[in-house]
Specification:
mainly alpha
Length: 152
């Protein structure tokens, strides 16, 4: 029974690392770089620079989440559950993104606050489908399920 609770704690901690890491880093990046860098001109569509940054941040945060998850659980079962959670929630999010949300065709003629940017930003559809895969691979790398640098 102890294993169950440790796995549950590990999955929750890993997911928390991802949520706080992504939210914190994106908010900080937006505050530092501003709307001119984050968006295409007069649009709620994110810029190419923002897309590249979000992929890099996503991989790094997912690796950290996988590491935290495996350190707490001390097994490879919990990271597998975390991967499943990220895939399911990511796919649901991608489906919801396709059915609406964001600023759409609305013209962005001001620099929105972080909260408004979060609500109205529109990312490419392909990125919405890529994000769960980025998270899954990052978790697998961070937890040691996938070894990219060999045994050390």
């Amino acid at each position: 029974m102890r294993n169950f609770w440790m796995n549950l704690l590990a999955v929750a901690a890993g997911y928390l690392v991802m949520a706080v890491g992504i939210g914190g880093i994106f908010s900080l990046a937006y505050m530092i770089m501003g709307a001119e860098w984050a968006y295409q001109p007069e649009s709620w569509d994110v810029s190419v620079g923002w897309v590249i940054m979000s992929i890099i941040v996503g991989v790094c945060v997912a690796i950290g989440a996988g590491k935290v998850c495996s350190l707490i659980a001390r097994n490879h079962t919990a990271p597998k559950y975390l991967i499943a959670l990220v895939l399911v929630l990511g796919i649901l999010s991608a489906i919801m993104m396709m059915t609406g949300g964001g600023g759409g065709d609305e013209v962005r003629d001001f620099a929105p606050s972080v909260f408004e940017a979060t609500e109205k930003s529109v990312q490419p559809v392909w990125l919405s489908w890529l994000n769960p895969l980025i998270g899954a691979v990052g978790i697998a790398i961070g937890s040691g399920l996938i070894k990219i640098f060999g045994d050390r």
